[in-house]
Structures are given as C-alpha cells and as structure tokens.
Amino acid sequence: MKKRGALQEPEIVRTTSAPNPVELPKDLPCPVDDGLCDHLTGMALPNLSLTSTTELACNLSSLQGRVVMYLYPMTGKPGVPLSEGWLQIPGAPGCTPQSCAFRDHADELRQYNCSVFGISTQSSEDQREAVARLHLPYELLSDAEFKLTEALRLPTFVVEGKRMIKRQTWIVEVGKIIKVFYPVFPPERNASDVIAWLDGKREAMCQS
C-alpha cells in the first residue's frame, strides 16, 4: 500500500434478483433514529489510515479543512442479485443514488470549501468499480478491516455474513465531527440536505 497522509443487527440471509441500483422504489421503509450515532458529534477523527480508490493510504486525522464523509452499506452492481428482502431493510437501499447525488452536487460542495469521501466496508476493488462506473469525482475509502467502525463504535448490520455500516453522513471541520446526519432518508436527497445545512450555517455566521 502506498502511503499518504459496535453494535450489530440480527443477520439477514436470503437472496433474490435485483433491480437497477440507480432506481429506487417509492415505498422504501423509513429508518428510525435508534440513537446509535448520538455519541459521534464532537468526536475527533481517529489517527488511522483507510485505503482509497486511488490506491493510497488516507490518514483520517490528517485531513485538512471541511470534509463531508458519507458512510454507506454497499453499492450494488447492475445484474448482480441483491439479498432477498434488501429493499425492505430500513436504510439499506440507496447507496448508488446517494453516491450519484454527491457527484452531481460536487461543484456546489466545493463552493463551501468541502472535500467529499465515501466510506463503506466493501473492498477497494469493489469501490474502484463503483467510482469508474458512476464517474465519481471523489475518493471512496475502504473500512474492510473495520478499523474506523470499531474506533468510533459505528452501528452496523449483517447480511449474508457481510457486516455493513448503517448509513450516516458527517460534516467534519478541523478534524472534528460537527454534524451527523442519521438516519439518512431518502438517501438520494442527502447531498442536498448537507448543502442546506451548510447554507444555514453560513447564513447564521453572517448574521452574528
């Protein structure tokens, strides 16, 4: 590797064919706030490195400026079956639309001096496939060894023996998490919700 600067839900095991991962049905179940991310606001990013889709090691504690990190279960692939019942797991579906939304709002986020990273427990190989297929202009980071998951006690769930992070999004400033979006729903609106929060923060600072 090149250098650069938990709780679990019951396991769900079943398989079925999958729809287009970019499209979401209208009747997805809404996740509820179980309080498992309440401890994150105010926490510093740990001094650990995750492998990036650039094949570099990204040390989280060394990230500068304002950073948006969206953590997601897994991106699907066209033609690859999802687990049976995946669309009925609250908060599980929607990783591809969420990633595409952050792609489509990349210019707006840069106006707020934000860099963007996506994080999942998928392998870097799977993440590189997603970056290429979806034309993502930002890096994805692999927590396949659960280093970040364990360090910050992130909520997870298990499907077919695969442990995944529950969807959440952080805004980080000077290495500290200042805002947590959890649960995230609908996922395709998450990027817009982040921008709205940043806009409100900017307006509040201008009025103070």
Automatic annotation (TrEMBL):
* The keyword Secreted appears for this protein: no
Keyword Zinc-finger in the entry? The reply is no
TM helices/strands, residue ranges: none
Against InterPro entries, the record matches this protein to:
Peroxiredoxin_BCP/PrxQ, Redoxin, Thioredoxin-like_sf, Thioredoxin_domain
Instruction: Kindly state which keywords UniProt assigns to this record, in alphabetical order.
Output: Antioxidant, Disulfide bond, Oxidoreductase, Peroxidase, Redox-active center
User: Region (Disordered): which ranges?
Assistant: 1-20
SUPFAM superfamilies in the record, alphabetically? Thioredoxin-like (SSF52833)
Q: Which CDD domains match?
A: PRX_BCP
Pfam families, alphabetized = Redoxin (PF08534)
**Domain of life of the organism encoding this protein:** Bacteria
The residues covered by the Thioredoxin domain are 39-203
Q: Which PANTHER family match?
A: BCPB PROTEIN, THIOREDOXIN-DEPENDENT PEROXIDE REDUCTASE
Please identify the protein, giving its name as recorded.
Peroxiredoxin
Tell me the organism: Verminephrobacter aporrectodeae subsp. tuberculatae
The lineage, from the top, is:
Bacteria, Pseudomonadati, Pseudomonadota, Betaproteobacteria, Burkholderiales
